[in-house]
Design goal:
9-stranded antiparallel beta sheet; 42 helices; 46% helix
């Protein structure tokens, strides 16, 4: 792919560095020297390490090329770069950001904090009371169009430049500014009220004197805060205590990372073991926390208690943290605040909202600059033809004001009203119910999109896992044969009923288990194999059953036995885990008869079909990581004392550690093609000696100061050998309704889809396949994990050789590639039909959107449903939020809110198309309306000795752009070139919209030529047919002008609407009626004669008939693509 794209790993003028030798190269690639030709500028390993900071600090233009800077460079734009650099330097000096540092936080002693930390308030407002008016005015007048109107209006206060009435210039400008300010004020008030509600939430703070109420915004670093169940966590905290007996709790993180599954958090052991809450003030302890960081999935810190002998040191990790914006799901927790306000993880991962400007507005802004240049040139020509006599500078300024109608102020008014109309049509569309337009300034962007960046969980999927398949090697079970498994489980545990385990409740186990462990080589029966597989699935997980009634009973002080009896028989039991896959597996074991009824940090209990309780003690847990792609657990069965190591994971990770088999790879491929998420389950029986040896080595590795993770992994890997393969499971993540046809529709429309998710690589790949984001004919290139410049370079070279493949890359590898090969990576990725980025943080999602905008100059759209998608939605040119299970945070922050992913098809194909086409036609017609009257003014002035006198004055000027032509021109917002059904049936029509052909310099030039022709015909015709009075010229030319504009609207319309006909009739009626009242402009006896009528009709016919003939011939011999489909 893109073999012509070179890679530039170092700048040309860097110091000389030796090349790689093949021996060193082998650590990155198996074929030693085969890739050397593809690495134009490879460095040594030492070079990679020594030059990283140097290289990273250089801008890309400096890395690639150092151009000589001389006078030519300065004149050709260097002055702008120098000014920008100076301004940036000044801004950094004046608004230097505070350096973030690690901190030590003492329990309950905020006054001991050495540094001042930010206030814990939420502020989403753009302005304050002082900056509102200047800020809104700046946002309006930073566009050339509005600034131009302001300057022209101000010029009318100078007597020598005054032309016409003052209200004709100021009334439209004041109207536009007033509407904008009211709209912004309403939005600001709403933001203020939302912020006030969040900051005013009350929490209980622990003090030496007891509990006190404190507002969320008044919480400080060092405070100990009590958070009740279902209450939002107000700041980043360390988890000190909980009301739960097992020392743990669940939190909901859907507004932080987008995952709807509950996360298990563990309290600090030292503080959880204290007898009472008040003892937190009797100990002398502190928490040392790392400096605030973006990463929401990691944390490093230490808890130290100084008043004990010896001192207690406890390492803290992500399991001991409670991040802000998450919600407590079980129990009551007490946390020590370590980060507040701007330093919390949620705020660091959220970008500030920006004012979005549509591409069509930018294009119109460029066209108005061209019109202004033409206006100045025309004024200069007039003064030059005068011979620069007298006060020619004054005359030049008067001519500029005289031709100011070339850029009509009604352009801004009409476009803003049109956008409001489009928003109303979108929200009233019955085919996409519940759609809300929150940003009404960019509906045209929906018709210009090239890249769609979508979240996975809750956007493409429902995040509801369903167990679909169990494969044992020789036999496979699907949803229609689950009853067989259930009968086998009942049969398996029925054999133990006559042999209770010495009265120990819950000590029962099938009698065949010791036999199976003693003779693993003997071929097992199907019943035995099913029993072992189901048992392994029921034990190997991180799922915890949650009982609402049980928690209340515990609070009431019932005994543990009574509580257990009540809980285990309670139908309100729910399962919670960090992965929905695990919940689906445990629910399935429950459905076939083996139920997980209780779990704490040290044990878990299963209930058999006969109602007996099996207790297993948890000896070790090895959690899932993206590197290992597997999780394991070592349990000891209470009844028999047998120790078993269970493990499950991705097939790529498990294939090498299970015993030889000939079916795993084939079946994994079969399930993957069905879109199922596969997990391989295996086990290994351990003797007491084997486990004790492992435990000693494992404990020693965990205490290591250096390379702890590597040593721990090495010890665990020593256990992962020759595991007995039990089964292969297939779980389906339910897709949202009509996701597949919607993605196919978007793909056919030429929209490239990137899926950005915080989920695992395997999960993301599975969903990409099942949703048909990856078509059957396309390959998938999984970008290998890279951590250095050399590895990134080699992997990019391998990626270059792939053609028409979908790229799958992790967030860590993406960060390395963008650090050193930003331009090359984006170019390669943009040539892929689709891209999947997994393990993305919220900030990375926003960075990817920004990169696409910078490198491709194409319009981007981001769609998501969780709080973790807000940054991405706000960074995109067009943000769409889905109201789903993860709350309304994304929906409220988005420009458009929908209820289902499938609605995006109609939103883009129909409403996006109509909004862009209508605005393009409306904008160009309004400019035509101004240019034609300016052309008439130019002809009039040139004939009458270049006098700077207006042709039409007073009400005629205002009425021309309002009462007489406003309704027919604005009715263009109802026009449509293609029926909605046709636009959805042929999404390929959308590709033409992204090319911007409806509004371009070509179409603009056509309208300019039409305006010049019609203006010249109308004015010269009126002068040729000139009677005895000048008043007759005004009456004939103005009447012909109004009729010409009405006929041009009819010529532009492609699909008539009854309101269009009504607008034409009303405008004509208003004008005819005004002829009898405006006596100062019209001679009533003359306009009632047949002479006036035939002259007006002759001039109008001459100005419009040729254009009608040209349009007819064009449609006959060169029809547009949509007209072919309609016919």
């Amino acid at each position: 792919m893109a073999d012509s794209i070179p890679l530039y790993p170092v700048r040309k003028n860097s110091k000389r560095i030796p090349l790689y030798h093949s021996a060193k190269l082998s650590r990155y690639s198996e074929d030693d020297s085969s890739n050397l030709d593809e690495m134009p500028l490879m460095m040594s390993e030492e070079g990679f390490e020594n030059e990283e900071s140097d290289y990273q600090a250089l801008p890309r233009s400096t890395r690639l090329n150092r151009r000589p800077r001389g006078l030519g460079w300065f004149l050709m734009g260097g002055w702008r770069m120098l000014c920008g650099s100076c301004c940036d330097c000044l801004a950094r000096t004046c608004w230097r950001k505070k350096e973030l540092k690690a901190r030590s936080v003492w329990l309950g002693c905020p006054e001991k904090c050495e540094e001042k930390h930010p206030r814990n308030g939420i502020k989403n407002q753009k302005y304050n009371f002082i900056t509102f008016v200047p800020g809104v005015l700046y946002q309006q007048f930073k566009f050339f169009l509005n600034l131009y109107f302001l300057v022209v209006a101000l010029s009318q206060f100078v007597p020598s430049m005054s032309i016409g009435y003052l209200y004709t210039y100021w009334a439209p400008l004041v109207f536009v500014l007033s509407v904008t300010m009211v709209r912004e004020a309403v939005d600001e008030v709403r933001r203020f009220q939302r912020d006030k509600e969040m900051n005013g939430q009350l929490y209980e703070k622990l003090t030496v004197r007891g509990k006190v109420q404190v507002k969320s915004s008044d919480i400080q670093v060092g405070d100990m805060i009590i958070v009740e169940k279902n209450q939002r966590i107000p700041a980043d905290m360390i988890f000190l205590r909980t009301s739960e007996k097992n020392g743990s709790c669940f939190i909901r993180t859907d507004q932080l990372d987008g995952e709807t599954d509950w996360k298990l958090k563990i309290a600090v052991v030292c503080t959880q073991r204290l007898a009472a809450v008040g003892d937190l003030f009797s100990i002398r302890a502190f928490v040392h926390a790392q400096k605030p960081q973006l990463d929401i999935h990691s944390f490093e810190g230490n808890f130290t208690r100084e008043d004990s002998d010896p001192q207690i040191h406890e390492s803290l990790n992500i399991e001991n943290t409670l991040w802000a914006s998450t919600v407590v799901a079980s129990g009551t927790v007490i946390g020590l605040v370590i980060y507040t306000g701007k330093e919390t993880r949620s705020v660091l991962n959220t970008s500030s909202a920006k004012n979005k400007v549509g591409l069509l507005d930018l294009e119109l802004n460029r066209l108005t600059k061209a019109l202004f240049l033409a206006q100045v040139v025309l004024a200069c020509v007039m003064v030059a033809l005068q011979g620069f006599v007298g006060q020619w500078v004054r005359n030049l300024c008067r001519f500029i004001v005289l031709f100011s109608s070339i850029i009509p102020i009604s352009l801004r008014v009409n476009l803003d009203m049109g956008k409001t109309a489009y928003a109303w049509m979108i929200m009233k569309d019955e085919n996409i119910p519940g759609t809300v337009v929150r940003t009404s300034t960019i509906p045209e962007e929906l018709g210009r999109l090239v890249y769609l960046l979508t979240d996975k969980t809750g956007t493409l999927t429902q995040n509801e896992m369903i167990f679909k398949r169990l494969h044992l090697g020789t036999v496979s079970y699907g949803t229609d044969t689950m009853d067989e498994i259930q009968s086998h489980i009942v049969q398996s545990y029925a054999q133990v009923v006559p042999h209770p385990a010495n009265g120990v409740a819950g000590g029962a186990t099938p009698s065949r288990k010791p036999t199976a462990a003693a003779a693993p080589k003997v071929r097992k029966s199907v019943v035995s194999r099913i029993h072992e597989a189901v048992k392994a699935i029921a034990l190997c997980h991180n799922v915890t059953p949650v009982y609402e009634a049980g928690a209340e009973a515990g609070a009431g002080g019932e005994t543990e036995a009574a509580e257990a009896e009540q809980d285990f028989n309670d139908y309100s039991r729910t399962y919670q885990a960090s992965s929905p896959d695990e919940v689906a597996l445990v629910r399935w074991t429950d459905s076939v008869g083996l139920t997980l009824v209780n779990r704490d940090l040290a044990s878990l209990q299963l209930r058999t079909p006969s109602g007996q309780i099996l207790t297993f003690h948890i000896l070790q847990i090895f959690p899932f990581t993206s590197e290992s792609k597997r999780m394991g657990i070592i349990v000891r069965e209470e009844a028999t004392g047998d120790i078993t190591f269970y493990m499950k994971g991705a097939d790529v990770a498990m294939a090498t550690i299970v015993q030889y088999n000939d079916w795993l790879d084939e079946e994994c491929g079969n399930m993957a093609r069905e879109g199922l998420r596969t997990l391989v389950v295996a086990k290994k029986s351990l003797s007491e000696e084997q486990y004790q040896d492992f435990e000693s080595r494992y404990s020693q590795a965990k205490l290591s100061v250096h390379d702890r993770s590597l040593k721990v992994a090495a010890v665990v890997e020593s256990l992962e050998r020759e595991l007995e393969l039990l089964c292969l499971t297939g779980v389906e993540d339910q897709l949202q309704a009509d996701v597949r046809p919607t993605l196919e529709l978007l793909r056919n429309a030429g929209i490239k889809i990137w899926m950005l998710t915080g989920d695992k690589l395997e999960t993301a790949t599975c969903i990409a396949k099942s949703s048909h984001l990856v078509s059957r004919s396309q390959d998938i290139h999984v970008f290998k994990p890279v951590s250095s410049r050399g590895e990134a370079h080699l992997e990019l070279n391998a990626f270059r050789r792939k053609h028409d493949c979908v790229l799958v890359i992790s967030g860590d590898s993406l960060e390395v590639c963008l650090r050193y090969y930003e331009h090359e990576f984006v170019e390669l990725a943009c040539q892929c039909p689709a891209v999947v980025c997994c393990r993305c943080s919220p900030t990375q999602k926003a960075q990817i959107v920004t990169l696409l905008k910078q490198h491709t100059s194409n319009r981007t759209c981001a769609i998501g449903d969780g709080g973790n998608d807000v940054s991405m939605i706000q960074a995109a040119d067009c943000g769409i939020g889905i109201e789903g299970k993860e709350g309304k945070q994304a929906s409220l922050a988005a420009d458009f809110s929908i209820t289902q992913f499938k609605h995006i098809g109609r939103l883009l194909m129909v409403h996006g198309r109509n909004s862009y086409k209508r605005s393009a036609a409306l904008g160009q017609f309004v400019m035509h309306r101004g240019m034609i009257i300016s052309a008439m003014q130019a002809v009039f002035s040139s004939i009458f000795y270049f006098a700077s006198i207006p042709l039409y004055q007073g009400f005629l000027t205002v009425g021309y752009s309002t009462l007489y032509t406003m309704f027919p021109v604005f009715s263009l917002v109802l026009d449509q070139d293609v029926q909605p059904e046709m636009a959805l049936l042929y999404p390929e029509l959308y590709k033409d919209l992204t090319k911007g052909r409806s509004l371009s310099f070509k179409t603009f030039l056509i309208w300019v030529l039409i305006s010049i022709y019609q203006g010249g015909v109308l004015m010269y015709g009126a002068l040729v047919l000139f009677e005895s009075e000048f008043l007759h010229v005004v009456a004939i030319s103005f009447t012909a002008l109004i009729l010409t504009e009405l006929l041009m609207v009819a010529l532009t319309v492609r699909t008539w609407h009854w309101l269009m006909v009504l607008a034409q009739a009303l405008s004509l009626l208003f004008y005819v009626c005004s002829l009898f009242f405006l006596n100062e402009y019209f001679d009533l006896p003359f306009i009632t004669t047949w002479v006036f009528l035939w002259k007006v009709l002759a001039i109008t016919l001459l100005s419009c008939l040729p254009l009608y003939i040209i349009k007819y011939l064009k449609r006959k011999f060169s029809p547009p693509s949509y007209s072919k489909l309609s016919s």
